[in-house]
């Protein structure tokens, strides 16, 4: 059991018990006009997304006239604020939870299991399986994903055509295409993100496990051999670069500026490219296969319920609407996120869309960015050391050995074995 987290668990459960006792016998507390008011918290987003969410919430209130939603935007340090409020017994009834944070919060017991709220007409099988699994543990489900994005290969059509290069479908083809597309240090064939959130599926492509039994597991031959070609493309081939090498902030900007012909990016890059670089003619394709296997990453956020809520039925009504077919259709209609329900993606035509289609196609086989409660510690240490190997300061094994030792030392400090 985690020593540090155990203190938090005790504090949370104490507050939880007090909150539940306070709510015993009160049922669904009613506000003005006989309505049940529930609190819903999330982080800030763009004005366009905020407007769309307001519309979805207004639609919910219109179809559920007995429920009022008080929406709060937590602009900074979202998870710190949420955890502090949960510990103090003042957490929101419903709130956003990123998949990477879900395992840790599930462990504390502050999330309400949702299994017994689900009815057959909610159609659980309609969800993309990997996205649902990110919020499950021991047969219980603690959240439903509101949307997602996978990674896809985004490429400059003009550059590929001029170089006589076909869109690569395998990683070997990508590496060969990068050689033809690279022009000194002005244009690189491939823009890379040397960090774990983007390379996790690559690191596991030879059957290795980046995380094993809650510990960092970077230095097995399978993981090292899977990552070495990624580093070699930068150091040896010199056909790949990270954004800072060319004065860009991220790989989407590299593509838009014409400093990379191909990048792996998510759905968020599409509106950015269209608005910031309207003259670029880009396409998307599924991530090239690695060692004959399909792979990509997926990033998702779920709606979860506070176990201490005294308004659980109303809270479930909100969650089921937001992740139901109608609510999700409205929320994903502007393409800020992709629908986690397969039927909604089909109804909106996203699965056949020439730009979005490859992103949707990756959902069934994606690796969701969520791997146990220790992943935040593991990826921080990976990122801190992997870049030193990426830029050639030291061998990959040496860098990842230090990352592994540091990560497991921090995890060991938190655990009683």
From TrEMBL:
An MF annotation (GO) of this entry: maltose binding
Keyword Cell division among UniProt keywords: no
Keywords annotated in UniProt: Signal, Transport
UniProt superkingdom: Bacteria
Gene3D superfamilies noted in UniProt: Periplasmic binding protein-like II
Gene Ontology CC annotation, any one: ATP-binding cassette (ABC) transporter complex, substrate-binding subunit-containing
Family according to the record: Belongs to the bacterial solute-binding protein 1 family.
Leader peptide range in chain numbering: 1-22
Protein name: ABC transporter substrate-binding protein
Gene Ontology biological process terms from the UniProt entry: maltodextrin transmembrane transport; maltose transport
InterPro entries (alphabetical): SBP (IPR006059)
SUPFAM superfamilies in UniProt: Periplasmic binding protein-like II
């Amino acid at each position: 059991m985690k020593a540090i987290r155990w203190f938090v668990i005790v504090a949370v459960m104490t507050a939880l018990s007090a909150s539940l006792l306070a709510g015993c016998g009160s049922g669904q507390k009613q506000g003005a006009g006989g309505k049940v008011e529930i609190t819903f918290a999330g982080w800030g987003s763009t004005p366009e997304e905020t407007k769309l969410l307001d519309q979805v919430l207004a639609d919910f209130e219109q179809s559920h006239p007995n429920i009022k939603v008080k929406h709060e935007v937590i602009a900074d340090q979202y998870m710190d604020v949420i955890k502090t409020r949960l510990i103090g017994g003042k957490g929101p009834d419903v709130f956003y939870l990123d998949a990477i944070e879900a395992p840790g919060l599930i462990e504390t017991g502050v999330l309400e299991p949702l299994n017994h709220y689900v009815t057959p007409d909610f159609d659980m099988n309609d969800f993309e399986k990997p996205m649902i699994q990110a919020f499950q543990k021991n047969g219980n489900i603690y959240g439903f994903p509101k949307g997602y994005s996978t990674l896809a290969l985004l490429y400059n059509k003009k550059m590929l055509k001029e170089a006589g290069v076909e869109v690569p479908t395998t990683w070997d083809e990508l590496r060969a295409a990068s050689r033809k597309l690279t022009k000194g240090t002005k244009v690189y064939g491939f823009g890379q993100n040397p960090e774990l959130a983007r390379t996790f599926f690559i690191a596991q492509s030879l059957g290795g496990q980046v995380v094993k039994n809650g510990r960092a597991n970077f230095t097995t031959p399978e993981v090292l051999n899977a990552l070495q070609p990624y580093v070699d493309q930068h150091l040896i081939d010199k056909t790949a670069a990270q954004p800072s090498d060319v004065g860009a902030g991220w790989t989407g900007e590299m593509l838009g500026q014409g400093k990379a012909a191909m990048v792996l990016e998510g759905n968020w890059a599409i509106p950015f490219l269209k608005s910031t670089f309207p003259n670029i003619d880009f396409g998307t394709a599924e991530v090239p296969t690695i060692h004959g296997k399909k792979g990509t990453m997926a990033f998702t956020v779920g709606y979860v319920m506070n176990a201490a809520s005294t308004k659980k039925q109303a809270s479930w009504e909100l969650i089921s609407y937001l992740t139901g077919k109608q609510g999700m259709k409205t929320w994903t209609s502007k393409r800020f996120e992709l629908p986690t329900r397969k039927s909604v993606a089909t109804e909106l035509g996203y699965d056949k869309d020439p730009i979005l289609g490859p992103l949707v196609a990756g959902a069934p086989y994606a690796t969701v960015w969520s791997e146990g409660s220790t992943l935040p510690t593991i990826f921080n240490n990976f990122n801190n050391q992997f870049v030193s190997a990426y830029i050639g300061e030291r061998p990959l094994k040496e860098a990842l050995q230090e990352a592994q030792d540091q990560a497991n030392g921090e995890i060991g400090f938190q655990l009683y074995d």
